[in-house]
């Protein structure tokens, strides 16, 4: 019946929301794996790393948290199937994300 279908949809939506929240929490618990990639490039602290199968909201949250502690540039290159997502975030005026993207995107067929 229609009420049962709607209830199942509601429960599925709640479970998906909870799953995504837990996934973000888990990713934020261990930022040290990302922080190990920290290097200085042209006087800017950077974290550049390649990861796989992260969802965009999780990547954005990770980038936000890393830049809060870095005063520099974070570049997360995420591979999902045959697609590449690039999240760039800078907390330093020297790290121009738009300039970097203009140089990187042609290399990724983007």
Structural overview:
- By secondary structure, the chain is an alpha+beta fold.
- The chain contains 4 helices and 4 strands; from the N terminus they run H-H-E-E-H-E-E-H.
- It has a 4-stranded mixed beta sheet, with helices on one face.
- A hairpin with a 2-residue loop joins strand 1 (38-41) and strand 2 (44-52).
- Helix 1 (2-29) runs parallel beside helix 3 (56-70).
- The protein is elongated.
- The model has no long low-confidence stretch (mean pLDDT 86).
Strand portion, in percent?
25-35%
Cα end-to-end separation: 47 Å
**What string gives the helices and strands in order?**
HHEEHEEH
> How do the strands of the widest beta sheet line up side by side?
1-2-3-4
| Rg (CA only) | 18 Å
- Give the low-confidence spans: none
Structural class: alpha+beta
Return the average pLDDT rounded to an integer: 86
Total count of helical runs of at least 4 residues: 4
Main sheet attributes: strand count, strand direction, barrel closure: 4 strands, mixed
DSSP strand tally: 4
The proportion of residues forming helix, as a percent range, comes to: 40-55%
Anisotropy-based shape: elongated
What's a quick, concise take on this entry?
With 110 residues, this protein is of the alpha+beta class.
Output the keywords.
110 residues, alpha+beta, 4 strands
Outline the secondary-structure elements.
Elements: H1 2-29, H2 32-35, E1 38-41, E2 44-52, H3 56-70, E3 72-80, E4 83-90, H4 97-104
Parallel strand pairs: 2-3
Antiparallel strand pairs: 1-2, 3-4
Helix pairs in contact: 1-3
């Amino acid at each position: 019946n229609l009420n049962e279908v709607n209830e199942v949809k509601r429960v599925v939506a709640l479970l998906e929301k909870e799953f995504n929240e837990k996934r973000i929490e888990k990713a934020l618990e261990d930022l040290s794996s990302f922080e190990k990639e920290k290097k200085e490039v042209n006087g800017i602290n950077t974290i550049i790393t390649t990861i796989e199968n992260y969802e965009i909201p999780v990547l954005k949250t990770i980038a936000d948290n890393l830049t809060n502690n870095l005063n520099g540039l974070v570049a997360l290159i995420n591979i999902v199937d045959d697609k590449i997502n690039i999240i760039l975030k800078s907390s330093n005026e020297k790290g121009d994300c738009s300039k970097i993207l203009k140089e990187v995107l042609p290399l990724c067929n983007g």
